[in-house]
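Much of what follows relies on a compact textual record of a protein's fold. The record below shows the convention in full:
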Amino acid sequence: MRRLVAAAVVASAAALAPHTHSRMQRAHVKEHAQPLMRRALGTAAVALALIMPSTAQAKELTDAQRFAAEAWRATDKLYYERTFGGADWFRARSDLLQQATDPESARGAVDSLLRKLGDPYTRYIDREKYDTLIASTLGDAAVVAGAGVQVIDGDNGKVVVVDVEPGAPADKAGLRAGDEIQQVGATTVKDAASTAQKLRGEEGSLVKVAYVRDGKDSTADISRAVVPLSTVRRDQSTIRIKAFQLDTATKVKESVEKVSGPLILDLRGNPGGSLEGGVETARLFLPKGAKITTVTAANGQPFAYDAVEDGAFSGRKLTVLVNKQTASAAEVLTAALQDNKAASVVGADPRTYGKGVIQTVQPLGDPPGAEGAVAVTVARYATPSGGDLNGKGVAPDRVVACGVAERASSCAGR
């Protein structure tokens, strides 16, 4: 390595000297080039010392510091906004290592660093949440011990049940869509994410849930069980997609094949999930060549997703039902169908959520995921017409009054 750098610096120094063929000029060049080469070599040595810590220095990192450094490297490599929110990114690494005095402080320092980027989607994920996230992305392989309900953040800080898995513990205990959860165990709920987390637990364990239905307080004793995560469900001519996984398009196709006539895709409360799942679902309903979305990553080069062939249900009369919780991949699907005039979009709210950026999840530790992960925004996507979804969402073709517990067919027909 040293020989290579020295050779490169010598070559660079020589290149600075003027081209000449006379002996006198060569002597003059030699006289002035030697000090230049010595300075260049000295500069290279300093640079190497700054960017290449010795083996002894690397070994001095504690486990907590190694975790923090790994999180920084993953973000440095993947983050799409290369100014890092205006932060002195390399100084941030030095500060991070100083703050990582133990595992807890290291996790807190990483979380704090990522928050300073000003991107709510780039964040640290602890191991428990990482395991749950991986489970929710694997399609048929996804199972979790819990109650079998889907909850969202409703108005005025309420946590609302939007779906109950048939036959799941919550279903057996009497919970229904539209119920407002007040407490899980002895803990008053704060938001949908923490509520879902508290509903999970060891298989067979009991948890008491306090909720409100039609203004009346009630409780349910739920025995947690391993519940397969059903993300696609058919109710007559309505196909409900609760989230997008890698196999969502296959499940949607199987459901649509059982329906004749007009269709409704119910995307209310769908937080997104796998972008590929949303793109493949869009392809089912679009003609060959139709634009679906354009993704732009850190290198600035756009990548277009199109329909590669006529979709199996291209031309089918289709209504898409959305609300303000419809987000991410669900918005990509909605915008693709709307811009290509393949569906009428009906909304319970004036706009969808407005999440137009893509994250990748980088596991940390050995084995991967042992110390959680970092979710890093790697790209942003646009609608077929070039619109920006992020912070804006999709405006429905028409807005109707539609509660989260109402049947999609009733709302779409208004």
User: Anything to note?
Assistant: Residues 232-412 form a domain with the 2-enoyl-CoA Hydratase; Chain A, domain 1 fold (CATH 3.90.226.10). The radius of gyration is 28 Å. The chain has four domains: 2-52, 58-118, 144-228, 232-412. Confidence is low (pLDDT under 50) at residues 1-58.
